[in-house]
Amino acid sequence: MQPKPRPEIQAGIYPPEVIRDAAESVGITGLTDSVATGLAGDVEYRITLVVEEAAKFMKHSKRTALLPCDIENALRVLNMEPLYSPHPATSIPTYRRVATPAGPVFALEDKEIDFEKALREPLPRLSKGPSYTAHWLAIEGVQPLIPQNPAPTDKGPLHQLQPAQNALSNGASNNASASTTINPPVKHLLSHELQLYYIRLTSALLSPASNAAEARQAALASLRGDPGLGGLVPYLVRFAAEKVSTNLSNVDIIDAMLGVVHSLIENQTLFIEPYLHQILPLLLTTLLTSAYPAPPSAHALWLRQKSSSLIARLLAEYGSGYPTLSGRVAKTLFSALNGDEQSVGEAASHDVGTRLGSVIGLKAVGKHTAIRALVHEKGLKGISQLAESLEEDAKLQVVDTVIEVLTQVLPEPKSVQTDTDQADDVCGSLLASHFAVKKPELVSSIAAALEDEKSMQE
């Protein structure tokens, strides 16, 4: 029984010549017409399948034009190899004609590689593995400009005001054509927790209740040890400065504000260096004010000594970074010691407490500065003259305070001298007479300081 002959494959729209050319381009020759016709029909079927699937995406997108993205989606759904996107116009591939026994073939123009040159070239570096590093995201709320942090956004001006039109005609300004830029004010936002903390802290510091001392100590202890108060520092400094300027005669409030400054300095997690220009005037005011009760007020003297100790600590910590800081403080203290009305005011220039505060403050600036102001410039003589009109208890407080300061700043004498004539000329009769009785070695220390100054000048 003879096998039935296979039916002849009918050619479709896709031409078999394209199949034959593609086969010859890869070196397949002698392709029969039936095979070429069969492959052409299969290609036509695949194209039809892809186009029909792409038409579905086109209809779902509510479009009437078929786009390349529809073809790509259809290939992805049919699990076929995606088409590579066409090359740009600047990089159109070039083909060259290659003669083969089966006929000419067009192939891509490839660059020939010299193996000897490739072997001589150094090997590329290996890519580094993943690594981790640390960097500062923000310091005191300010983001540093480093490559690891995002670049700050350039926020444009809120609006611009065009210059007046008559400025050009009148010639009022050469740059009248330039617009004036107005930037919006910058707001410092605090969290609700910090706002609540600030309200309760200030209320505890100024509380008039019977347990005000305990509440104040608890508030200062919290301020001294809490590490999350960086955003409150400018508000606390301004609060202390305002209360000091308006309540100089209230020693209790001044004591509380000095406690606030002391707690801010003690808190090692706070950065108070940007606020020195506000803290130092506050401390100098509490040191040199004439609004305190007159001597012999022990509380007023204690406030001046506390202010002096805080100034000494600030100068010790930040004086090296700001060379003119000590000089500016010393200049203010010199003016108060000499009774300069333009610097300290008319009332403070004749106040013994202000002069006494300047003596205590000079000890905080440094020994050499204190010796020059008190001994060489005869600053103690003015205090002695003002103290002569005081009562006996007030005189003793002034004398004891001056003796305490001179004992700490003057050098130890090599020999004890009993001649007080030189001490009278430098310190005044009141202080010199008490020195001879209470601390005779101070007379010798003053003489030694004067001799050292004379030898340095020679």
TrEMBL record:
Domain TATA box binding protein associated factor (TAF) histone-like fold: 12-76
Sequence similarity: Belongs to the TAF6 family.
Official protein name in the record: TATA box binding protein associated factor (TAF) histone-like fold domain-containing protein
Record-linked SUPFAM superfamilies: ARM repeat, Histone-fold
Superkingdom of the source species: Eukaryota
A Gene Ontology cellular-component term: SLIK (SAGA-like) complex
Family annotation (InterPro entries): ARM-type_fold (IPR016024), Histone-fold (IPR009072), TAF6 (IPR037796), TAF6_C (IPR011442), TAF6_C_sf (IPR046344), TAF_TATA-bd_Histone-like_dom (IPR004823)
Entry keywords, A to Z: Nucleus, Transcription, Transcription regulation
Compartment(s) where it occurs, according to its Swiss-Prot or TrEMBL record: Nucleus
Pfam families, sorted: TAF (PF02969), TAF6_C (PF07571)
Main location (coarse class): nucleus
GO biological process: RNA polymerase II preinitiation complex assembly
